[in-house]
Amino acid sequence: MKGHDIVVIGASAGGVETLTNLVQKLPPDLNAAIFAVLHFPPHAVSVLPNILNRLRTLPACHAEHGTEIEPRRIYLAPPDYHLLIGHDRISLSHGPRENGFRPAVDTLFRSAAHYYRQRVIGIVLSGTLDDGTAGLFSIKEHGGIAIAQDPEEALFAGMPRNAITGVKVDYIWKVPEIAAQLPELTENPIQEKKLMSEEIVHEGEWVQQEKTAIERGERSGLASAFTCPDCGGVLWELRDRNLMRYRCHVGHAYSPESLLAAKDDSLERALWAANRALEEKAALARRMATRAKESNHWMSEAQFSERAQEAEAQAGILRRVLSEQIGLKLSQEDFE
Q: What separation, in Å, do the N-terminal and C-terminal C-alpha atoms of the chain show?
């Protein structure tokens, strides 16, 4: 019988430091393959494998598509690619973002739960919002072990706190406890069940399967009043017991908290665009007023000057709104 030899980890803000602290405390003979997703900007250059390899515990590398899974290694999702694991192999996908991210934690967790069921240990570390909660729920539903970092210890408590709220996690541990307990957990024997016969290798297949199930009435899903922040399509509201999420027909997926954050960003972009348009309107009106003055058209000069003042006043109001919104966002991040 095999043990819990598939360990999947998700983190975001504060994740590099937290993952480094965890890996530093792991034994080099840990009998498991570790897969980790940290949120990186799409065009970022990740040096995380170099950072972890300097610890001289478990060798770390960016995952490569089609690579055979080996134990006692750490596979990291490269920027702008979802990391999925299939039957003994790794798959990378450039599919739709989930919760606004690619790579996304939920994508990795869900694929691990689908293929490896009770063999999976899912760990949610420091980060904001709630990427990883739905994936950790899937791991629990398939018989795996769910662990959340103690929010009191986390540099950013949002991800572990949401995981604890949304999932009946097995353990809430600080990083030293996670590292100390992992060797024993990975060695605990399990009665492995037969894997699902239909293999799903690419994230697009997950999306298509979910869409087909909704259309056939096999999956509870309702068209919501919300549109996708990424593509503008209608979002379907999906429920898994107490968890709710949204997915569009293209495949972009959001938790409610991530969708709210995305809408905040969309609103901010719209306000900045409106602010720019008003400033350009004011500049154009001032130029027209100057031209009118040069031509001794005093009435036209007054009208253009008045329109410039109105546009500048409206732009000022928008800038105050934007300042308040940015300040609110910063205070919320400090709270996390």
A: 41
DSSP assignment letter at 117: G
pLDDT tens sequence across 177-224: 999 999 999 998 886 655 443 444 444 455 566 566 655 665 555 667
Catalytic residue among 4, 5, 12, 138: 12
Handedness of CA 221, 223, 226, 229 (dihedral sign): positive
**Model-level pTM?**
0.76
Backbone angles phi, psi at 33, to 5 degrees: -100, 135
DSSP 211-274: HHHHHTTSS-EEEEEEE-TTT-PEEEEEEETTEEEEEESS--EE-HHHHHHHHHHHHHHHHHHH
Nearest to 74 by CA among 93, 95, 51, 92: 51
Span 169-183, average pLDDT:
97
Catalytic-role residue among 5, 106, 130, 131:
131
Cβ contact 58:49 at 8 Å: no
Task: Please confirm, yes or no, whether 230 is among the known catalytic residues.
Answer: no
CA distances, 193 to each of 1, 7, 124, 143 (Å): 10, 18, 25, 10
Active site residue 39: yes
For the question of residue 131 being annotated catalytic, the response is: yes
Torsion of CA 22, 24, 30, 34, to 10 degrees: 50
Which candidate, 94, 95, 97, 75, places its Cα nearest to that of 85? 75
